[in-house]
Amino acid sequence: MLKEPTGAEKVLCEKSKEGQEANCKNIQNPEIRAEFFRRFMLGLQPTSTCPEGGHKIAPSGIHVSNTRFQGRIDLEGAQTACCGRLPVIIFEECVFDGGFNGDHGHFSRLTFKDCKFKPAPADSNGTEFPDINLDGAEIEGDLILSGSRPLTTQNGDSTKTEGVSDRLWFTAEGARIDGDLEAKEAVFIAPNARNLPPVDGGLRYAVQLASAEIAGDLKLCPGVQLKGGISLKGAKIAGETWIAGAKIEAGDGVAINAQSAQFGAVFAIRSLERNNGTVDRTEITGEVRFLETEIRGSLDLNGIEIKKNEKNKSPETEEAGISAAQLHVHGSINMGSVNKPDGSELAFTSQMPVRFRDLKAGGSVYLEKAEICAGEHAANDIGVTFVNSRIGRNLLHSGTTSALLILNLDVEGGVKLAGQCSGPVTFEYGRIGGKLEHSGTPSKLEIRNLDVEGDVTLAGQYGGPVTFVNSRIGRNLWHSGTPSELEIRNLDVEGDVTLAGQYRGPVTFKDSKVSGALILDGFQFDPLRCKGGRKLDLQHVVVEGKLLIQEDPKRFSDPDAIQIQDARTIQLGCYPGWSLIDAHVVRDGVSGRVGFLIEKNGKGRSRILDGNSNKLHEINQQGALKIDTPAQAKEYLRLFCAYVWGEDGAFTVVEAESQLCGAQNMSVAPLADPVWQENGWKFTDVIIRYAADFFKAHFIVYTTDEKGRKGLIEMTDDTPLNVKADADAIPLYPRTRDDKPLVREPKNQNHDDASMEPPFCLDTSRKWKEMQPVPGRLRTNLVGLLQRYASAVDFGEVTIDLTDSHCGTLEDSDGRGWGSSSKLKLQNFTYDKTSRDETSRAEAQRWALGHWLTQLRRRALGGETSRPAKSRIAWLGQQFPRRVTWLDRLKRAWGRSDSTSSSINAQDYFPQTYTWLINVLRSQGDEAAARVVAIEKSRIEWAVYAADQMFLLRWVAQIAAVLYGVCYRYGYGPVRALATPLVFILLGGLSFQAANEMGLLVIGTTPVASVAVMGKAEMSPAIPLTDSRLASSTLPCGSGINTYLYAADIFIPLLDLRQEGRCDVRGATPEGAILGTENSEQDIFARMTSVFRTTAFWEWGKSLYAMLGWLVISLSIYTWIEAMRRFDRVG
Q1: Residue-range definition of the domain harbouring residue 597
Q2: How high is the mean pLDDT of the chain?
Q3: Peptide bond before 1007: cis, by omega within 30 degrees of 0?
Q4: 746 CB-near residues (< 8 Å, 6+ apart)
Q5: Which of 327, 738, 774, 901 fits a 20 to 30 Å CA distance from 171?
Q6: What pLDDT is recorded for position 45?
Q7: 988 located within any domain
Q8: Do 754 and 889 sit in the same domain of this protein?
């Protein structure tokens, strides 16, 4: 039993009996012994001199303030005999030299307000014990720890005192608190991990509430510091949990461990907005863990900052800011921002990934403006992960992260991903009950096996490809981003699909079904940045609605995409006859500077300087380089270093103060003359700036032609200088060489792109010549170089593949919407009907009304009258590869045309594409257009047939095809079928008339009966006699026939006009076979024309004319029969 009580102990006894505060502030040495206090609380006689009943406590409990407790207060298992629980205990501004042990005690209410704790010494085994130990305790009221802190902590900052451990270790594992647990402005510090009993996996927390039960709220705010984290493992908190304005630092474990915990209301770890308008940010160093945790309210993580735990890393912890597995949140999850007084926002920030696995959220999940693994903390790891999770309402991500991974997510509402991602975004195996919207900036987007009930909008600025496969969309799909490649496969869309992006690579939309329309109206290939080929793959697509792509000349190639605003030029001494041009180029709203080497004599060796050395070496090997003098060698070194780039830009030869870019303690001087040696010029001590670093280097510029080494530059030695340039002061920011085409852009807003100084440093005696505006011819030359450069490096011909696809209505401006220079693949492409736009219809009407006579004439000749049919034929003709003819080359040489001709091979021709269009046009009642397409189909088939023949037969087949097309429109020109025989009869009539006039057509007679009576006694032959006085057996036809009827009688085999039997071609005469050839000395022309006077020529001509008649009449009859059949079919 203790001896005499101290003054403070007497005050405690007196005041507690009366239910008053025992304030020992004015007592000298206000100390209460721990054993005295224990006996006093347990109803035992505290000291031998204390009278009986002098230690009674009023029902209101005890209130001790400004007292120092010596030793460790041990109330382990404490309770009273009368009611079982200890009365209310309030400690205010007290000091505990050995801590407080209430292990498994039973308390009415317990308060430690503004108290300070000095840990008790370890036992003989070195084991340390908690400074406040309430493990297994029962507290029927509140537990207040506000203002509690280690003894050596002043004003919230830890200050060490020699021999005193800075620690306040609080545990209430397995405790039951029927009220609130509150700790405002408290500081808890976990012990070092040494010689500690294995609790909670061997990890120690500054606040240990594992398996605790709190009927009220848990309030660790404001101003709470937890150096060593807090464990809520297995805890049950019926009320709200608030950790706001706190500083939490993980020790041996995680920063906040809520594994297997249950929270009956809101769980908030957030920054705190105070009434005075300030914001106290919650800073957490280490992991926040939710494993098998249930939160019956919402999870509020707004405005907090999670940092990496660099000091104390444990195998038990993950490299994650928030690690949530099997977390069940009945409400929403908010990882957003809080508003600051100045109007700015304090966003959720985590240097480590945020991972949700098997999440079940009844409300929405918001990562609004959150910054996760962003900026300098961006890593190869995935920033945000959702795996096997379910969200009752919406998912919103609009922050910044390294990468986003969503696997097997079930969202009842919509998903909006608008974050700025430096890495990829992956969404696989999930269901979305509402919309899916993506408008971020990831390196790539990948969506697989997703079921979306609403609309899908993909409008991000993608650094890489976009993939969308094996998915279903309940409504519409809209894509308007800028990916390097778009791949959509096995997609089932119940609404419309709109592809309206500016694509930098191939676009694939295949093996899919679209119940609505497929709209390509906003579709465009980036004219300069397109890599991997310009290909639109629409194979195996079923579009039940319309396939819409209106005419747009800039869809597949934009001639106005490149503009030269101004330029400056200078003559080069190292390249005689060449100029260096530094041009201000604008394309797609992005401006910068581009360097060119232009040859004046027009030999076509001009080059764009893109950062690669091969451009200079190419013209060097052609003999353009001249470096015979030191001045030429210096100029070439400056040029080479300025326009041959490494990964971080150009190598600038520093010769002026402006090129130091803010570097201090550096002296500059003009480039010294090189020294000649055997194989070239040697430069020493050249100052080079590469990005922000400076070097002193030695170079050799080779001048020998041996092994093509002329113009090569070798850096023989380089020494780094301990000097750095100001990154913001570097005026030029060249892109890397792999980003084509290259332009130099300003690195920040401090430098105007139009006024950036060239990287090529000149002698002070020489100046650039400014050109503004740039002369038209030079501008055309520079734009052509850029276009050819981009085409050669990045893309070639546009290819559009519609193989095995189908659409309901083809609405493509009558084929013009696909571009005139595109290569089309239309094998087995089918459509129910075509649709003409109003513009085409109006143009056709104006054309018909304004040229009705021409139209009538073309109808009479069997020609087409529908201009859209011409467009359709041109559209079908784009299936065939293009070849450049000599005429095309001539036109291009004069800058007149960029067109090419079509060459048709048998393997490129598919009759189905023409047959299907013909049937569709006929089903729509447009027989005229169908006839035009059918004629084109026959023309191609004849051309293919002719191309497969041997050399001589090929010419015959080609001539026959041309004649059949001209005369009969390949069986589709009934008017021509009527006109063609008439033309041949007219020509035959004219020919036979000429023969008749030459006496080549004669009438056969019988000489015996052919006499004439000259007088009463004299008779003479009626037929003239020959020189031999013999009578001739033939007479000239003369007017005995009508030559046109005669020709018709011969030409038409089934028609007998009784003309052919009247006259025949004269046979061989006694005078010879040729009439009028008495003069054998005629000139050559007369001899040639005399052939047409021979009877043999006309005998053969008449026979061939009759044979031609059989062929022509047969083809005419065939053409008319087919025309009648078509008429009956249309009728």
Answers
A1: 562-793
A2: 80
A3: no
A4: 592, 731, 732, 733, 752, 753, 756
A5: 327
A6: 64
A7: yes
A8: no
> Is there a single domain that holds both residue 581 and residue 722?
yes
| DSSP structure string for 810-840 | EESTTTGGG-TT-EEE-TT-EEEEE---HHH
944 and 1004, same domain (yes or no): no
Residue 389: pLDDT band (50, 70, 90) is very high
Tell me the CA end-to-end span of the chain in Å, nearest whole number.
126
- Our CA dihedral for 1118, 1124, 1126, 1129, rounded to 10 degrees, sits at -140
Which helix or strand (DSSP H or E) is residue 134 part of? none
Higher-scoring residue by pLDDT: 616, 359 = 359
> Quick one: 102 exposed, middle or buried, by C-beta within 10 A (0-12, 13-18, 19+)?
buried
d(CA 867, CA 845): 10
Q: Is 851 inside any structural domain?
A: yes
At 648, which amino acid appears?
D
Question: 1073 and 1100 in contact (C-beta within 8 Å)?
Answer: no
Give the torsion through C-alpha atoms of 284, 287, 288, 292, to 10 deg. -170
Q: How far apart are CA 1117 and CA 786, in angstroms?
A: 59
Assign 3-state DSSP to the chain and report helix, strand, coil percentages, each to 5.
Answer: 25, 30, 45
Closest by CA to 260, choosing from 289, 298, 293, is 293
User: Poorest-confidence range of 313-317, 319-323, 1082-1086?
Assistant: 313-317
618 and 703 fall within a common domain: yes
Q: Kindly report, residue by residue over 652-710, the tens digit of the pLDDT.
A: 888 877 777 777 777 778 888 899 988 889 998 898 888 888 889 999 999 887 766 88
**Residue bearing tokens 């301990």:** 722
Please check whether residues 959 and 1075 belong to one and the same domain.
no
Is-contact 550 524, C-beta < 8 A?
Answer: no
Residues 953 and 993 grouped into a single domain: no
Question: Cα 191 to the chain's mean position, in Å?
Answer: 52
Answer with the one of 776, 793, 810 that is the final residue of a domain.
793
